[in-house]
Design goal:
- The protein is α/β, with parallel strands linked by helices.
- It has two domains: about 140 residues, Golgi alpha-mannosidase II (Immunoglobulin-like, Sandwich), CATH 2.60.40.1180; about 325 residues, TIM Barrel (Alpha-Beta Barrel).
- The protein contains ten helices and 27 strands.
- The strands form seven sheets. It has an eight-stranded parallel beta barrel with strand order 2-5-8-9-10-11-12-13, surrounded by five helices. The chain has a six-stranded antiparallel β-sheet with strand order 16-20-21-27-23-24, with helices on one face. The protein has a five-stranded mixed β-sheet with strand order 17-1-22-26-25.
- Helix 4 packs across helix 5.
- The two termini are about 40 Å apart.
- About 50% of the residues are buried.
- The N terminus is likely disordered.
- Bound molecules: alpha-L-arabinofuranose (AHR).
- Alpha-L-arabinofuranose binds next to loops.
């Protein structure tokens, strides 16, 4: 280490040591306009799995408007469908036309249940229209053909005269939908066909060759990406695919408190599991950084997107529910994970242009849980509500020093944050304090920026295991935050233990 770096290192070490002793953190928010935080980072994923589509979005013969209204409030920008693993066994023709004539198929991936296919292409796109969001369709590479994929695109996007476009009209949709986001397979290294990255690259090139842009449509093709830290996948695919016709490459990373065999309960967990889950969620930063660095080699001007189109905490299912349906409760811990992960994505907005939390309703880290005609909003829902102010805003880069949250012999940074400036000039700062016991005071310096007022909201609760239930749906809910003040031109924030705080500076 050279002497200057050594001095800097010692100063930071001293600074963070004294901060940690005081339970205070320091933050500098720079006025250098960073990249735009794509609103699509705040996207979602809904698979034909368990009770996500059937029961969650679709009941009987209609879309649930209570769920739609709730999701509209958080400005869902994009919804991915029909999978997941299900996408690579989905044949779109099974689910168009009169519902009583649709095929009955077996969902062999998720519980061997019979699908009546009453929710198909038209229903999904109607759902997106109601939500006011962009559709993101994952096409079938694993068990499909390039012709089947090409036909689906013609059915969706062609405005002229053709048998497929006429079939769409016959089925009730005159105008093409101009679907843009298009996944070429899903998890092609696993459930999407057990391919090597070399083999997948060839398949991607073959399939994408036939994904045509019809007049008025502009496809954004997304290549199936890596499993977490499988950097070789990204390297090989980036090297071999036809990058010129590719909008992005995906990556999936799920947070586990334990192992894939023993994931742990969503509601009954110790501080040890709490700590492990948070530490696992923080790994997203390194994983995104390393995939981005590989992409930089092939795409130095960052034209391609890293699309984290599956993320979230994955726990054991709720006792007494179907193991293949992946129904889990959602606690304050999961809200802290959501806030932390969204801060990571914001801070990597130069490369992460879309992300999709798994899976919206009744599956994995859901925003909404339903029970017959009842519905509740989870703590994670409220994080997306608080963070919606970052959508399409300019990132303001932050540097911060934080005390650690130590547990046993291990430690993680207690506080994480991101900041942005919206088109109206307002600055928003989102903080997460992961420490379950300590309030942390943050002093933020905003060189070159002025503000007169600071307002905010906080999401916290008495215990990290706290959840919203159908009997008590408002236990974990945002409240007005009064712990932020202006001191000179600094911002001083008293972050409660285990909290998400989002501030607006004007
Ligand atoms: O989200 C559940 C499953 O996780 C998806 O179907 C698959 O893509 C991933 O392995």
């Amino acid at each position: 280490m050279n002497p200057t770096r050594n001095l800097l290192f010692c100063t930071l070490l001293f600074f963070s040591f004294s901060l940690s002793a005081q339970n205070s953190a320091g933050l500098t928010i720079r006025d250098t306009a960073g990249p735009q935080i794509s609103r699509f980072i705040y996207g979602h994923f809904s698979e034909d799995l368990g009770r996500c589509i059937y029961d969650g979005f679709w009941t009987g013969d209609h879309i649930r408007m209570d769920v739609v209204e709730a999701l509209k409030k958080i400005k869902v920008p994009v919804l991915r469908w029909p999978g997941g693993c299900f996408a690579d066994m989905y044949h779109w023709r099974d689910a168009i036309g009169p519902r009583e004539q649709r095929k009955h198929t077996v969902n062999t991936t998720w519980g061997m249940v019979t699908e009546d296919n009453s929710f198909g292409t038209h229903e999904f796109l109607q759902l997106c229209d109601l939500l006011g969001c962009q559709p993101y369709i994952a096409g079938n590479v694993g068990s499909g053909t390039p012709a089947e994929m090409a036909d689906w695109l013609e059915y969706l996007n062609y405005n002229g005269k053709s048998t497929l476009a006429d079939l769409r009209r016959h089925n009730g949709r005159e105008q093409p939908w101009n679907v843009s986001f298009w996944g070429v397979g899903n998890e092609s290294w696993g459930c999407g066909g057990s391919m090597t990255p070399e083999y997948y690259s060839g398949e991607y090139n073959r399939y994408s060759e036939f994904c045509r842009n019809y007049p008025g449509s502009s496809l954004k093709l997304i290549a199936s990406g890596a499993n977490g830290d499988d950097y070789n996948w990204t390297e090989t695919v980036m090297k071999n695919i036809s990058r010129g016709r590719t909008w992005g490459i995906s990556m999936h990373y799920y947070t586990l408190a334990g192992s894939w065999q023993h994931k742990g309960s969503a509601t009954q967990f110790s501080e040890d599991e709490y700590f492990r889950a948070l530490a696992a969620s923080l790994r997203m930063d390194e994983i995104v950084r390393r995939h981005s660095a590989i992409m930089d080699k092939y795409d130095p001007h960052k034209r391609m997107a890293l699309v984290v189109d599956e993320w979230g905490i994955w726990t054991d299912v709720e006792p007494g529910t179907n193991g293949a349906f992946l129904y889990q409760q959602n606690s304050l811990r999961d809200a802290l994970i959501a806030g932390t992960t969204l801060n990571i994505f914001n801070n990597h907005a130069d490369r992460v242009k879309m992300a999709n939390l798994a899976q919206t309703v009744n599956v994995l880290q859901a925003l909404v849980l339903t029970d017959k005609d009842r519905m509740l909003l989870t703590p994670t829902y409220w994080v997306f509500d608080l963070y919606k102010v970052h959508q399409d805003a300019r990132l303001l880069p932050v540097q911060f020093y934080t005390p650690d949250y130590a547990h046993g012999s291990e430690k993680i940074p207690a506080v994480n944050a991101s900041a942005s400036r919206d088109s109206g000039g307002a600055i928003h700062v989102s903080f997460v304090n992961l420490d379950p016991a300590k309030k942390i005071t943050v002093r933020a310096n905003l060189p070159g920026m002025t503000f007169k007022t600071v307002t905010g909201q906080v999401l916290t609760s008495a215990k990290f295991t706290d959840v919203n239930t159908f009997d008590e749906p408002n236990r974990v809910k945002p409240a007005t935050f009064s712990g932020a003040r202006k001191e000179g031109n600094d911002l001083v924030v008293e972050l409660p233990a285990m909290s998400v705080v989002v501030l607006e500076l004007k």
